[in-house]
Amino acid sequence: MHRIVKSAIAAALVALAIGAVTALGTSSSYGSGTPEARATAAADQVRLKLDPSSDQLAQCLPNARVNVSVDLTTDQLGFDVFNVSARHLAPNRSYTVFLLEKAASPFGAAEYIGDVTTDDNGNGDNRFKLIVEEAFSSQLVNGQRVRVDLNRVGMWFADPKDDDFCLGKNSPVTPFDGDNEAGVQVFNSRNADPLPAP
């Protein structure tokens, strides 16, 4: 009798495991079948690496890596998908992310697109949905409307105090955050190809 009960329990556990795997597979395939997932899978993708903005920051963050990938899906979805993967940055900090006219100072026109926040290990990821390939600023120059492409990327310490560990307590306060107070630019794409422009 004990063998029969054990066999029944074992059979029930196997059935539950198979059901769970089947449910996961169904859920996963459903998610990959969404219009956004299909468009992203079929999209052209641009990848670039951001480098520390100064030699001093590079020395303070010797193992830091920031990679950006952009799925060019505006034609299919009305927006591109901008992914940031940051590893071994200063931990427990927020970093603001901008599309820029020029990667390094003077930056020219800039668009604030979001934040990346790192964990205890200095790792953080975020995904933004916005126009990237066709991002531009419209400016008035000598009475003429001029288009400026925003095809460079920069990241700043969101809090002015967050760069003190490297630059000291008198480091510059910059306006690159929503509250108009940020630290210095920490990474930029000056050594990468510009993002594609139309």
CATH-level-2 architecture of the largest domain:
Sandwich
Low-confidence stretches: 1-30
Query: Overall pLDDT, averaged?
Result: 85
Biggest sheet, spatial arrangement of strands: 5-4-9-10-1-2-3-6
Number of helices: 5
Any idea what the shape is? globular
Summarize the helix and strand pattern as letters.
HHEHEHEEEEEEEHE
Work out the radius of gyration.
23 Å
Total number of β-strand segments? 10
Number of domains: 2
Largest sheet: 8 strands, antiparallel
Question: How would you describe what is shown here?
Answer:
The chain is built from five helices and ten strands. It has two domains: 1-32; 44-188, Immunoglobulin-like (Sandwich), CATH 2.60.40. Strand 7 (136-141) and strand 8 form a beta hairpin. It has helices spanning 2-32, 35-42, 55-60, 74-77, 164-167, and strands at 44-52, 65-72, 80-87, 94-100, 110-117, 124-130, 136-141, 144-149, 152-157, 185-188. By secondary structure, the chain is of the alpha+beta class. The model is unreliable at 1-30 (pLDDT under 50). The strands form two sheets. An eight-stranded antiparallel sheet has the order 5-4-9-10-1-2-3-6.
List the helices and strands and how they pair.
Layout: H1 2-32, H2 35-42, E1 44-52, H3 55-60, E2 65-72, H4 74-77, E3 80-87, E4 94-100, E5 110-117, E6 124-130, E7 136-141, E8 144-149, E9 152-157, H5 164-167, E10 185-188
